[in-house]
## 1
Amino acid sequence: MHLPILSCLVFLPLVGMILIMLVPRGRDNLIRGIATIATALVLGLTIKLLAAFDQTQSGMQFVEHAQWIRELNVFYHLGVDGISILMIFATALLGFLACVASFGITERTKEYFALYLLLETGMMGTFLSLDLFLFYIFWEVVLVPMYFLIGVWGGPRKEYAAIKFFLYTLAGSMFMLIGILALYFNHTPHTFDMIELTKNSFALYFQQLVFLALFFGFAIKVPIFPFHTWLPDAHVEAPTPISVLLAGVLLKMGTYGFFRISYPILPQAAHWFGPYMGVLAVIGIVYGGFVAFAQKDFKKMVAYSSVSHMGFVLLGLAVFTPAAMNGALLQMFNHAMITGGLFLLVGVLYDRAHTREMDAFGGVWSKMPVYGSILIFISLASLGLPGLSGFVSEFMVLMGSYPVYRWMTIASCIGILLAAAYLLYMIQRVLLGPLNPKWSRLPDINKREIFTLVPLMIFILAVGVYPKIALQYIGPSIEHLLHLLAGKIAA
Amino acid sequence: MVTYPVFIPLIPLASFAIIVFFGKWLKEKSAWVAILASAASCVLSLRAAWTVAQGGSFHQSFNWLMINNIPLEFGIAIDPLSAVMLFVVTFIGTLIVIYSVGYMHEDPRYARFFAYLSLFLFSMLGLVLSSTLVQIYLFWELVGLCSYFLIGFWFEKKSAAEAGRKAFITNRIGDIGFFLGIVTFFYATGTVRFADIRPELIHAHAGSAVLTASALLLFCGAVGKSAQFPLHVWLPDAMEGPTPVSALIHAATMVAAGIYLVARLFPLFHAFPDVSQVIAIIGTVTALMAAFFALTQMDIKKVLAYSTISQLGYMTAALGVGGMTAGTFHLMTHAFFKALLFLGAGSVIHGSGVQDMNEMGGLRKTMPITFWTFVMATVAIAGIPPFAGFWSKDEILVRAFESGHRIIFWALVLTALMTSFYMFRLLFLTFFGKTRGHLHPHESPLVMTLPLIILAFGSALIGLPGSPWMHHWFQNFLAAGHPEEIGMNSFVVTISIATSVAGFLTAFALYVLKPELPKRFAKKYWVLYEASKNKLWIDEFYQATVIGWFKAVSKNAFVFDAEVIDRTVNEVGLKTISVSRIKNWIDQYIVDGLVNLTGWTVRKISAVLRLIQTGYIHNYLFVLLLGLLVIVFAVFNI
């Protein structure tokens, strides 16, 4: 029998969720087991998908297409191509690792893991949908469990952070919905099909309006400056595994929206908005870096560093060169690995010390040698050390953007300096210097925690040394997209 | 096909991996792994250098990354220039790894130290063997990272942690220039391969403003790494690292990477006289300035650090005035005698337990091997013939003299004078006279003194291949068939020897014959003395300006984020709530009120109306009749 692999990816977590709901409260180990198995199965299937994926093809693969709501012409349409495959993999990997990292959650375990699995279904569905209606539904499905996961299992200001995240994102998706409906009604016959919509050529002013509407939806999610302030709050309050998914996957849904929807469907508008996106990108890179440097809270610093690093994705999107586009997409994957790792590491420290104040630490490296080394390794990747993955994607973006926006590229380079400044400052405050006697009994990172970090480190190193292992998946699809854009823009 | 030079960097990398993963079990044996690895690299390097000397060359690469459909290669290339560097790095590297066995003895992180050293050797060799600008940038950052780790090796010391970070950040400032230089170069010429950077390629772009900018930006990288003014401030602080590290990384090899880069891109710089001029000036300023700072330092390692900066400036100046072989030659000789000086200083620190020269003195009796090897190195750096430094320094001076830059020439002569003086001052303060502190000095073990002895021979002899006695074999080798004209200039030679001797005599007079004089001079010329001792307050200046601004911007950006952007978001949220409150009020009192009002009105009206609706037929008939009468009257207009 032909296995509908993409549907399995989307609905396996949901099955897990239903199973968990059937388990009586209190049987925590069983619940954890079900969640782990579900996420592990998803990861296994994703690896199978990677192996079966045809790297030479630029179009959609493993397509599943079925009518859903006939009256509205809505289809259940899933597919994967070079643009989504790395995000699928990142989602599956982080989904599994963060699940393992969730073993520390002891409060309302049943609800936690049920919501967690629902979240994974939403994320997978967002990256796999090829129908705007379906896409929107999954997009919103992500929101609800996220709200509860922050609002129930979060820190002291969890209600504030959760509602801020929820309302802000909801406001964005309202605009997005308007954009989607505008596309639907202006296409004859009315359709939500993304592939179908790319074939149409809308008038420029219409494209601009829709682009703007979608932009708000995506920009808030990325988040692009100045829509970013929900992010630090949400991160600081969210439990560690949720922060990992928030930074590693949710933010990428925003930039993915540009790649998947805005760019192919509204190419002229994308081109028209390019310079403005570039400016916002540069502001995000530099501003995010400066603000990150001023942080005292470890987690908040990482959150602001995300604003800076996601700026590179936007910069890559703003210019229509192969190097920059490939770099932007790769940066999404790399940032998922790196920042996911950083949040896990913040969590490891917080679980032991119950504080995230960087100045409260000092000299921890001598007490936690393994932890310190891993933290330094991932920080180095984040600050763009060559040989590790962050460098490759930022290098490609800058290389690709230079001939288009020279001064913006030069300004963005300040971001590289800033990354070194705030990360090394963090390392110095937390790990180096004389040991604060308060922490003389701090236990080193344990095996389970190491287990959640090692896969990330492997990918950080592998992509950094030999970027082709990741780029070979995305190259043809990006080329195809650029070809499409070039054709439309010239027309 | 894989050729053996690939293993030159890979063996130290393997050593790094072995020590990282098995260091716990290896413990003391980690050092052996590192020694064997560096020795093996050294043997392979010598073999490769030998092949190159016979006229061979290596170039092997694979396609690493596509940039807009132009492939970027990753590979190894060996030509005479990289062969020289290979020899210097692996030979001195091996000696220093051996020396470290003694120096780092009983350190709690003994294994980790050798892991770092191996990682450094891998990165440095990768840098030397790089076949493209992008690749050299890659390893450039990696050696910087190793430097960061090793400066902060004793990270419990706050000053060490701070110094490591300062080194990394300062270098990164230069590296951003370097990076932009690579990008601009790539778009100006379409290539980043060193094999393509030939005079023909550059001449095709002669006079190009972009390429001029690119050349200057690329030079920024060298300014950072080779600690040239104005980015020199990190190197003296880097002395917080263990002394073998200072010798290997911050004297002999890594800091010379900037010089190597300029030499590697020599055709580019040579084609742009304006850029060369800038390079020459920066080099000269650095040389003179750092030598001036070295005059008054009392920390034995600080003197050597400023000396290193000064000598690197010398090399930069040489490259700036067109002396590619002269600069590279000095790089090599300097690597030997400066490594020896640092290791000697390390031996002194190890044997006496102090680093401050105020407490030293008279060590020549208790540490004879260290003393004699130190003398050799001092004589070499001071430029006394026929020791190594003399030949290379002399060639640089000849170059500067012949280039016609008179100011540069005389500045370099003055630097040579100061160099000779501060080195003999160091020698006399440390080894002569009576011990000033309460020390129980002892000679270092053989594992440390043996490298000293080998390097002492090197310092004496390594200049000979570049001397007229061997018909400038080194220069011919380096220029590979296109030797630069090397003129002997008796005027320059005389000046050169005279300055060396003058420096020695002054130091001898001040620190051996009349030791009370220096203090009097310091009082009399206190402006100069303070300026030198405080290094022209450059650190303080940076602290007050650039660093201050940086922190202020960062702080204000955060305030702006919280008080403006986030505030706006929250205000919008709160306003929405207030608006909905108002709406709620309107709903309750107006909308709902209107509904109620309607009901109330209807009720009232109906109450009135009810009065008429009596239910009696005769009442209705009466009203009907009344109405009919009104209509009739109205119609007939009565």
Note: Strands of chain B lie at 58-67, 70-78.
## 2
Amino acid sequence: MKPLLSLLTLLAFTLAACAPPAPLAAQLRSEALPVEGFARAEGIQPFEFPRDFGPHPEYQTEWWYYTGNLDTADGRHFGYQFTIFRRGLLPASQTADRPSAWAADQLYFAHFALTDIGGDAFYFEERFERGAAGLAGAQAAPYSVWLADWQVEETAPGVVRLQARGQSGALDLTLTDRKGPILQGQQGYSQKGPEPGNASYYYSQPRLESAGQIEVNGESFEVSGLSWKDHEFSTSALSPGQIGWDWFSLQLSDGTDLMLYTMRRDDGSIDAFSHGTLIHPDGRAEYLPFDQYTITVLDTWTSPHSGAVYPAAWQIDLPAYNLSLTLQPWQADQELRLSFIYWEGAVKISGSHNGQPLTGNGYVELTGYYASMEGEF
Amino acid sequence: MNPPLFSPPLLRLAGRVLRHSPWQSALMVLGILLGVAVVVAVDLANQSASRAFDLSAESVAGKATHTLVGGPTGLDEAAYTELRRAGLPYPAAPLVSAYVTVPELGGLPLQLLGIDPFSEAPFRNYLAAEGELPLADLARFLTQPGALLLAESLAQRYGLVLGDPLTILVNGQSQPAFVAGLLTPSDDASRRALEGLLLADIATAQELTGTLGRLNQIDLILPDAAAADALAARLPTGLTLLPAAARSGAVEQMTAAFRTNLTALSLLALVVGVFLIYNSMTFSVVRRRPLFGTLRCLGVTRAEVFALVVGEAFLVGTLGGTLGVLAGLVLGQAALGVVTQTINDLFFVVTVRDVAVPWASLLKGGLLGMGATVLAAAFPAWEAANVPPRQALNRAGLESRAARLVNWAALGGVGMLLLGALVLALPSRSLVLAFSGTFGVVIGCALLTPLATRALMRLAATLGGPVIGVLGRLAPREVVNSLSRTGIAVAALMVAVSVSIGVNLMVGSFRYTVEVWLEQILQGDIYVSVPGASLSQTSAPLDPEIVQTLRTWPGVEQAVFLRSVEVDSPYGPIQLAANDNPQDGDEQIYYSASGTPTEVWQAVQNGAVLVSEPLARRLGLPEQGGTLTLYTDHGPVEFPIAGIYYDYGSSVGVVSLGLETYRQHWADDALTAAALTLQPGEDVEAVTRALQTALAPQQAVIIRPNQALRADTLTIFDRTFAITGALQLLATGVAFVGVLSAMLSLLLEKQRQLGILRAVGLSVRQMWVLTLLETGLMGAAAGLLAMPTGFVLALILVYVINRRSFGWTLQLQFSAEPFVQAFAIAVLAALLAGLIPARRMARRNISEGMRFD
């Protein structure tokens, strides 16, 4: 999921959005950094763990993306998103040999959002650090990715602790992987456009049993639920005509997990490179080409903050699998207005699989609704 | 119904009076102009320097409430990462800073600020107005070695564009860098602050300054004292949390005395100006007594007469004030350069050089001039208004009153003197009180002047008669006869000249004291140090290889090393001088000590410290048995003070200690300077040249023979007092204008009398002699009376003002030169002032002169 991918290749972001006035004049203008010198995703390559849990600095862009739906014992629902992005500022071949430990050729930034359904609130913030001096970074074994005190750390094989404390909320969760890494696309090679290299390497850990504390406005809650991790790296841009995407990570009550995305084109059509993966309860994954699923928007929501109009309810059908789902956002307002404006929110699922009713939770990411992502990057 | 106080006809009359005697009016205006100009110029320079400092400090300190500091070499960079990774819930920003010079940017000291762009936002606002920074620029800023951002205006001034190479000179090393970006702040304050800064990524700054692994400080924004206490409690030893204001406040405080001194000197010029106004207005009133009498007879009220005179003064004050402000603006630019230079030499680096004109200063100066004028005119105006109409027409009335007044003035003078002395004797460290007392003494002396002048003139008449004849008797008598006017002129000149004596004596004493001190402390033959960006920056370390070279250089008998650094303390930043000189105990001159020099040095070897006199005074340390707390690498340590020594190298103060002690408490084995003693028979010049050649490839160091260092130190000393000399000259200028104006009025008034003298046979030549004798006598009186006044002033400056301002004890060095000089100036000024009216008189024919009235 989450091809904030191309977005990042040509990112336009505000440094330290939570603390204006911004430094270095803050708004980094949307402008491409040169991609020359960085490796491109140009075909299937074998994944190897734990090596590939760590960073891939030969690629320009990378992220570790956690989302989850959690409940307290008495049913108060929370959603969270915690993402650490890495961005290569200079390919290794052009990096000067510098003696200072602060010398950075990697930029890290993170988004942290909490959806508090009981409190009818949505919190989000963004942080930046250099990938140097130990301030931010990632490593494969033991697996760890961090930005200052926001961090994910392996505590035992297949178990990580996720900790983040923001202005209005905090998260301290233990995530236990129940299905292991699932390679997305074709053996982890996820093509986004027709041009060679407009692709990423992408795997997910779709079913992470989660338990711990969530803190909102000073109030602490014991919660448990499911999280989803995506890890993706690439050096690429959106192809011409691609304006944004709708991304779905869905965890169903029968143990099935589903990743789907549609790449939207400027003429209103869906790009044929869109695809998905169905992960059976036993961890078996099936590639879903674009023609195997339909996504129908049932409702829209107009953001009172940005004015953007987002889809706000969906009907998803996979006829070949006899799977039919209806998605409702847990709450309408889950719009992040950070360096870029997008909607990323917890959704509630109901539907049927092979005639059996089921429920579930998921996360949906909607980009390119506030402004087209094309030309923006 | 009463007419308005300043009725149009009376104001018109006032204007006409001024036009009628353009010379006097012009001189009055000139007097006020000069006085105001000096006040405005000094205020402007002071304000600008102060604001430049604020800007410099703010541009670095930003919005930080607290600063985390380490030892003299800063703190370990890991401390920042630990804070961030531990989830410090407050904004924190690491900082690496150093003063550097860049030949491509004019070679002036600039502050290189190494920042972390990701944590800067809440702190420093110079980048806020920037608008947008392309990601590519950020990438370049972070990834390119030597990438610097600087103000676009600064770059433009030196014709630099993006990508141009720069040479960074720091700690005697030269490092390549380049212009990676130009900053264009939208507001003026940011632009000015930015003009003294070079911004680099923290990595770049570490690499350029050779401070790998170290940070100068970590800035913090803490919400309250509780948060600060909580944070302080969990800090590892060696890290100290300081309130941000404490640092900059302590530094600014140091220059306060310097600036107060300048202000006092500038006010002196205005005081002399006030004398002048008073003088001129008195003349103007005296001359028009018949007119006032007539006006009063015609029914003009007292209030209106008062208003008429004050109105004149008001016009003069307005004109003089306005012109003075304009002149002050011009003068202020020159003064700012001198003031900033001095602050850079003595206190700290001010990187902001261009400061907005503080309009309040101009307004203040203008109003001060106007107010002083009106105030000075109040007494003559009251005098004019209170003379009964009939008596006003009686010309003899005034002088008899003046004769009585002289005695009263003298009595008042004695009172002022006593009051001034009393204020000075108060056990206080207040500089304002000290200057108030000084003004009291000066004004007291001035009030005694008419009486003293009368006595002197009578003496002159007795002595002069037999020598010069009639004119020799006539001239002093004439001075006495118009004492109401001459007395004030003499007093004004006396004040100006006495200030000149006082200041000259003080500066001479100071210079002498410093010379003696240098003689004592500069025992080495050759001194080696690293050039800093400014004289007040002296902690740049010597290259270890150079240290080794110096130790083993042939012909060197002894190499003594000094580590000069700034450390933090509960009292603000403190300059430390740690040395390994085994003779140091003998080479200091002690103000107070716990035992013999040998015992003191023994104590210092055992970990005690020595404190310089200015620091002891600033901190109010006891003469015996005091202690001093310094923040060391392992927390605050209380050091016993073994003695207080004289030191004229820093008005801020220095703590001297053994190098061993220093290294026990601070992990820093760098050395700042070396003093070499050569074996007997070695040629100092030759060794100096050889060292210069040998060390040049390693590090740019300054290698100076003893004599050169002494000369350089005295050059800085003289530079510091340059502005004092200029101010003093201006005050004399004002006094000169005063005498000129007084003579002009006096002789103008006496035209009829002189006409009669001419008629009874006084030749033109004799009239010249008479006029010049009169003015010469006045000048001589002023010069003579200025001597005791100047001496008293010197005593006050040396023993009160200087000690309170800078904490230095000076040895009063008496020399005849300032006295002779002052006397000559007084007589010359008076003679010169008499020249113009005498010429005018000589040209008039007798009948015209007699008809004048």
Note: Chain A touches chain B through 42 residues (CB under 8 Å).
